[in-house]
Structure prediction request, 219 residues.
Amino acid sequence: MTSHYADGHTEGLIREAQSSEQRISSKFENSGDLTSIKLCNTSVDGKDVYVQLHQHVWQTSLLRGPWKAEFQSIWDKYIAVISSHAVPIEELQRLPSWKEGVTNFLDDLSNFASNEAAQRRLLGTNSAFSLGEPYFDAETVAKILRLPSPEGTLEKQLQNLAQKKMDRDRTTEWCSSHELFPLYERAFEFNYRGWKSGIDYKKWKKNRESKAKKEERGK
Prediction:
C-alpha cells in the first residue's frame, strides 16, 4: 500500500491513539518527547496515513472531546517535565565549554559505527552512558544526570532503559547512534541535524580533525 503523511483530526487518529495509549506512554517514558511520536492509520481509500503527534494535534484532537481524560494525564506530565527542564538546561547552556562538548559528543555518538576515533573517545569515558571526558567534566556530568525526565531524572531514565535492554537483549551494550544519540539530543535541547546541515559544519569538522591529529602527535 502507498504511504503518505497527514495531519489533522480524524476519527481514525483518535481510534489509533486510544488503541496505542500504552505504547504512547512507553515511548514518552523512554524518550521524554510526546510530539515526535507517529501513529499509522489506514484511510478509507486503503492508504497508510501517518500522523505525527505534534503539539497542535494534541491540543486540537486528543485533548478535546469525550476521550480527553484518556490523554490529559500524560500530556500534563509532559508539560511538567518541559517546565522543570528549562532552568537546569539553561544553566548548562551558559557554561563556556557546553556547546563544544555537546557538538563533539553528539557527533561522535552519531558516527560511532563508522568512526574509530569516535569509538575510542566514547569508550574512553569509561561510563555506562558514555558521559565524561573528553566531552564533559565530572561536575557537568553530575548536572546532566540530574536533568528532569519522565522518570524523575535523566540518570534514572538511563538506568531504567539499561535494565529493559538487559531484560530484552541480555546485554547492556548500547547502540550509540540509535539509542543514546536521540535521547541526549532531546535532553540537551540541541538540534544536531539542523546544526550539521548548516554552513559551518564542514569547517568545524575539519578543525576538530586537525586538533585531534595534533593531540595524537603530542602523546
In short: Confidence is low (pLDDT under 50) at residues 1-9. The CA atoms of residues 162 and 168 lie 10 Å apart. The first strand starts at residue 3 and ends at 5. The radius of gyration is 20 Å.
